[in-house]
Design a protein that fits this description.
Blueprint lengths: L2 E6 L8 H13 L6 E4 L9 H9 L2 E8 L5 E8 L5 E4 L1 H4 L16 H12 L4 E6 L9 H6 L3 E3 L5 E2 L11 E3 L11 E6 L11 H5 L7 H21 L12 H13 L2 E4 H9 L1 H4 L5 E5 L2 E2 L8 H11 L4 E5 L1 E2 L5 H4 L2 E6 L7 H4 L3 H17 L3
Parallel strand pairs: 1-2, 1-12, 5-6, 6-10, 10-11, 12-14, 13-15, 14-16
Antiparallel strand pairs: 3-4, 4-5, 7-8, 7-9
């Protein structure tokens, strides 16, 4: 092995992509001490997206206080690249790790994300990339929109900030007060999935359970997103129900497209372009990628598959090292994944497994390297 390219996503709630790269490098050098290892920690719109861009292009972090998932005061941040492009990961203000086990998709807000966008625009960024992944929310992006001047009115004409359970109260949407500076800003939404807003593959049905919603709440949240879509179509003239990526971040993808004309694009493709992935593949013998769980959702635009498609085009094998392997992932092999390995070495619940994940990752990569040495 002369050159190995490491390009993992974070394992959400356990290890950052940077930490994963460090553990992988140590295990690989034990067996291939003279190999060239190129580590590119990436994210596809969720947590770690800002660090990925800053690592690729340089720049700085801007820190400020915003509203968190439950409207609490929160220390947050965004990145500014050398060309003054701002990179915001919505997870930094409304992410699932911020709520811990206190998960209530019906009560959480994206308001703080709007505050980050406003600050970036008002301090001079004319292009803002918003990573739409890892959310604890299901408010259709209405909280962020409210922070940026959109007014949501109930039947009595009173303005309020909707959350997932109150989207049905929206009787009218007034976009006349949108922050004026946004008119001269290009907004790009990085989506880690291409799900629709509502229905069987929508934001609530697919993602709300992991955000604390039971079966009845999932149905309520889905109906409420449908109501939001109806009012948007009537008042703004945009049909967002089936826009690919509209269901990202609890429907924030659809909301941002409706309220601000945000261009939605696959997050991993945005990152791969920024790090020059195709050039990095030159001379590589192997690519190792990974994410917390590979499943049918991974096939809809996440890190491993995005990397695998390009590696396959270049004729380079890719091994996926993941936390967990779901059902129905056979298509991953057709997309360019050569092999998939789970780091879970014992049958244990997540809370126990996360305590040993670093050692398990190191052991898994060590075993892969031992196998490759047999044919080196």
């Amino acid at each position: 092995m002369k050159k190995i390219l490491l390009i993992p996503d974070s394992y959400k709630g356990t290890m950052s992509s940077m930490e994963i790269c460090k553990i992988m490098k140590k295990a690989i050098y034990r067996h291939f001490p003279h190999a060239e290892l190129v580590a590119v920690p990436v994210a596809d719109g969720g947590e770690g997206s800002v660090d990925a861009f800053l690592a690729a292009a340089g720049g700085k972090k801007v820190h400020l206080k915003v509203k968190g998932p439950y409207f609490e005061s929160l220390d947050s941040f965004y990145g500014v690249l050398p060309d003054n492009t701002a990179v915001i990961e919505m997870a930094a203000a409304a992410g699932l790790p911020l709520v811990g086990e206190n998960r209530h998709a019906e009560l959480t807000t994206t308001y703080g994300v709007g505050q980050l966008i406003r600050h970036a625009a008002e301090t001079g960024s004319r292009k803002i990339i918003v990573g739409l992944g890892g959310s604890a929310t299901n408010d259709g992006g209405t909280g962020a929109a409210a922070a940026l001047g959109v007014r949501f009115l109930d039947l009595d004409g009173n303005a309020f900030i909707p959350v997932g359970e109150t989207l049905s109260r929206i009787a009218k949407i007034d976009i006349s007060g949108i922050t004026p500076v946004l008119r001269s800003v290009e907004l790009v939404g990085m989506c880690d999935i291409d799900n629709s807003l509502c229905g069987a593959k929508g934001a609530a049905e697919v993602f709300a359970p992991q955000k604390g919603a039971n079966a009845d709440m999932v149905k309520l949240l889905d109906r409420n997103l449908g109501h939001l879509a109806d009012v948007i179509e009537r008042d703004i003239g945009k049909d967002i129900r089936n826009i690919p990526g509209a269901g990202a971040a609890g429907g924030m993808g659809g909301g941002m497209a409706a309220f601000f004309g945000v261009r939605l694009q696959p997050g991993i493709e945005t990152v791969l372009e920024a790090v020059g992935f195709d050039s990095l593949l030159t001379g590589a013998d192997l690519v190792i990628s990974g994410e917390g769980r590979i499943d049918s959702q991974s096939l809809r635009g996440k890190v491993v598959i995005g990397c695998a498609r390009r590696a396959k085009a270049a004729g380079i094998p890719l091994i996926a090292v993941v936390g967990d392997i779901g059902d129905h992932i056979e298509e991953a092999y057709a997309e360019g994944v050569s092999a998939i390995f789970s780091i879970n070495s014992v049958a244990a619940p997540f809370e126990k497994a996360r305590e040993r994940c670093r050692d398990d990752l190191a052991m898994t990569v060590d075993n892969i390297m031992r196998a490759l040495k047999l044919y080196a």
